[in-house]
Design a protein that fits this description.
Shape: globular
Helix content: under 10%
Number of helices: 1
Oligomer: single chain
Structural class: mainly beta
Strand order of the largest sheet: 1-2-3-4
């Protein structure tokens, strides 16, 4: 077990990710981004260009870039040792990003407080209630083996079909039909 005594910025990581090269990355709530190479820790923060150190979610894309979702600073791409920020001025609906996945088609999906957003080819597309979601509060984003994007909201499970999210129909209670209830 590693703690603050071992060089971590705090004892409570918010997210952990292993990248293609075997590096372990951890994000800390207002403590920065930490890389563990198996021997030592390296913390990245505002001095390194990570202008918001409240790291909530991490993803690695097909280009092997590391993406960092923050609470208040939007998202950051870490490539070749430097950070690039994507926030409201670049089209993000909000700067609080709590969930993120890198999809197999090269897009990046993330959750803000007002939308599910997709970053693809440098452009951001927001999905919200007008696009079939019953709620903008998300608890999960997942890409299945067929490349479909699924989201869990406060009002159920939805899947992206075409350019709209649709509710997954409820499954009948098999137990109830067996016992005649």
């Amino acid at each position: 077990m590693f703690t603050k005594a071992d060089g971590l910025p705090s004892d409570v990581p918010m997210t952990v990710l292993t990248t293609h090269d075997g590096m372990l990355w951890a994000g800390f709530n207002c403590g920065g981004l930490v890389r563990f190479d198996g021997q030592s820790f390296r913390t990245y923060n505002d001095k390194d260009g990570l202008l918001n150190t409240c790291v909530y979610t991490l993803a690695e894309d097909l280009n092997r870039d590391l993406w960092i979702g923050t609470y208040g600073g939007g998202i950051f791409r870490f490539r070749d040792g430097s950070f690039t920020q994507f926030s409201k001025p670049q089209g993000l609906p909000r700067n609080i990003v709590t969930l993120m996945i890198a999809a197999r088609d090269g897009s990046l999906w993330f959750s803000t407080q007002v939308a599910v957003s997709r970053l693809r080819d440098g452009r951001i597309r927001d999905y919200n209630i007008a696009d079939g979601l019953p709620s903008n509060e998300l608890y999960g984003i997942h890409e299945d083996l067929n490349g479909r994007i699924w989201v869990g909201t406060t009002k159920g499970l939805h899947v992206l079909e075409g350019d709209r999210f649709v509710k997954v129909p409820s499954v009948p209670d098999v137990h109830a039909s067996i016992v005649g209830e």
